[in-house]
Write a structure and sequence with these properties.
The protein is mainly beta. About 10% of the residues lie in helices and about 55% in strands. About 25% of the residues are buried. A hairpin with a 2-residue loop joins strand 2 and strand 3. It has a 16-stranded antiparallel barrel with strand order 1-2-3-4-5-6-7-8-9-10-11-12-13-14-15-16.
């Protein structure tokens, strides 16, 4: 709580000081996104139908100077823990606490910042209130981390970026001598096609690397599709432990009020030397979801959808459920 208060006071002080800028009036806007849902299991388990408030983002973004912007966003939700007891808890973390400098084609940001590898998938998927993108859903990487990043637009088609991060994620800001280096490039060969490649590297006694490739298609804003593939090598700095998979999704909108969407994920781990089966078999499998979305107002989204998980292990049950998801934002 003390850390939160200190950061808020610093943020406010920066806002006040920025009013001395000649010829510029600081301005900002609040940030609010709330995710809620109703779930009805269809797999015959003892799970009950229920209403859930999954997550809320609350914060503020302030333009301090023409080239400087400060942002603070709290992520209020359950911890990254699979136990039923932990999922009932609610914690508040700093999802974003950053200072950003923009000049011409150069952008530099420092603090707790979003990871570049997830920017494009999240933009094209655009349904975080229903399900996280692949990298986040299967814990290949956190969505944000503490560090410094730089992005440079070479021309209208090519953008390059790099970042040096703590590597632990925004909810586990630990102090150690291990850092994560990220490099990537975005290429837009046509107005309807975006290609993105990203490499993350960190090392303790063993190096851990993650390679991510993404392709996004958008036709007139009504037809959108995305395909991402990811490979995590030496996960957890354990030599020989690998996970890989892909996610393909798409949606079609009409009348700016309705959309149909679908998504399929596939996740697998390797069989290390000395093993008889994949080392992460209990969490390997594939997921399917599809549904229809309704926008009664531009900042209110309602979705009716079906979600299914097919485990790779034959002795684990298939889980499926019907969901009604709601998002509202400022």
């Amino acid at each position: 709580m003390r850390k939160i208060l200190v950061l808020v006071l610093i943020f406010r002080a920066l806002t006040v000081c920025s009013q001395d800028s000649v010829g510029f009036k600081p301005h900002g806007s609040p940030v609010m996104r709330v995710f809620s849902n109703f779930v009805s299991p269809l797999d015959g388990s003892d799970k009950q139908t229920s209403f859930e408030l999954k997550r809320a983002y609350l914060g503020y973004t302030q333009r301090l100077y023409p080239e400087w912007e400060a942002s603070i966003v709290l992520d209020i939700g359950s911890p990254n823990d699979d136990s039923p007891y932990s999922l009932l808890k609610r914690y508040a973390y700093f999802k974003i606490a950053s200072l950003t400098y923009t000049h011409n084609k150069l952008t530099i940001e420092a603090g707790i910042i979003p990871r570049y590898s997830m920017n494009a998938p999240e933009k094209y998927w655009a349904r975080r209130y229903i399900e996280k993108v692949f990298l986040d859903a299967y814990r290949f990487a956190p969505t944000a981390d503490i560090g410094v990043g730089m992005e440079y637009e070479i021309n209208q088609k090519i953008t390059v970026y790099t970042a040096l991060m703590n590597g632990e994620g925004y909810d586990q800001l630990q102090h150690d001598n291990t850092y994560e280096w990220s490099v990537g490039m975005q290429f837009i060969p046509f107005s309807w096609l975006l290609l993105r490649a990203n490499l993350d590297y960190s090392k303790k006694l063993v190096s851990e690397t993650m390679t991510s490739l993404f392709a996004g298609l958008c036709f007139k804003g009504d037809y959108v599709a995305g395909l991402e593939t990811n490979w995590l090598h030496n996960e957890g700095f354990i030599s020989g432990n690998e996970r890989y998979g892909y996610s393909v999704f798409g949606h079609k909108t009409w009348q700016k009020k309705y959309a149909v969407f679908t998504r399929y994920d596939w996740l697998e781990s390797n069989i290390p030397k000395g093993y008889n089966y994949p080392w992460n078999l209990a969490k390997d499998g594939s997921a399917l979801l599809f549904g229809i979305e309704y926008y009664p107002k531009p900042k209110i989204h309602l979705a009716f959808n079906y979600q299914d998980w097919f485990p790779a292990a034959k002795d684990l049950p298939n889980t499926k459920a019907l969901f009604v998801n709601l998002e509202f934002r400022l």
